[in-house]
Design goal:
The protein contains 8 helices and no strands. It has 184 residues and is mainly α.
Length: 184
């Protein structure tokens, strides 16, 4: 099973090489991904703005696609663009931002030079986890899907999704503990 990162990156690389069909598929897949991303971050009264934000981000992706560094994770690059579009939206509409504390990091300006490197570290750690757990962790912790969404789309029970995530995170913690002791 391909992770979303792998699939989108493959499509991006093919489109950068001139494959128009891959570019069309990329934009379609990214639009769906971004819609979920924005809906999770907009107040109920501004959910209608999600489609405009998706379009703004797709236009920015198109305009900036030549700046994508092919050795870096695609979704980290995409989310940086989306985050800027979201912040611009809040500023433009003079919206007072109230978000759950879990999502507050999306609104704090950060130095994105380390984001791709950190993302590569996460990807490396995820590769050490069995594929089933890796996909569950990726979809919930990185893409932001809920346990229920992942359970529905995979055909697993919510309990099985939670157990898979827990086992994967436990394996990552063991690997990190090994690194800290010079074994990784």
């Amino acid at each position: 099973m391909h992770s979303v990162e792998t699939r989108l990156k493959e499509l991006m690389l093919a489109s950068l090489a001139g494959d128009a069909r891959s570019y069309a598929v990329l934009l379609n897949d990214v639009a769906k991904h971004l819609r979920v991303y924005f809906l999770r971050r907009l107040a109920e009264s501004h959910k209608a703005d999600a489609d405009d934000l998706v379009q703004d981000t797709l236009m920015a992706l198109h305009a900036k696609r030549a700046t994508y560094e092919i050795d870096r994770p695609f979704t980290a690059w995409l989310h940086a663009i989306a985050r800027y579009k979201l912040i611009d939206h809040f500023r433009r509409n003079k919206l007072r931002i109230t978000v759950p504390l879990d999502d507050a990091e999306d609104l704090i300006p950060v130095d994105y030079s380390d984001v791709a490197a950190n993302r590569m570290d996460v990807e490396s750690l995820l590769q050490s986890v069995p594929e089933k757990s890796r996909e569950l962790i990726y979809r919930t912790k990185i893409e932001g899907q809920s346990i229920a969404e992942v359970a529905t789309s995979t055909g697993l029970s919510e309990s099985a999704v939670k157990v898979g995530i827990h086992r994967g995170i436990k394996a990552i913690a063991a690997k990190l503990k090994g690194r800290a002791h010079g074994n990784g």
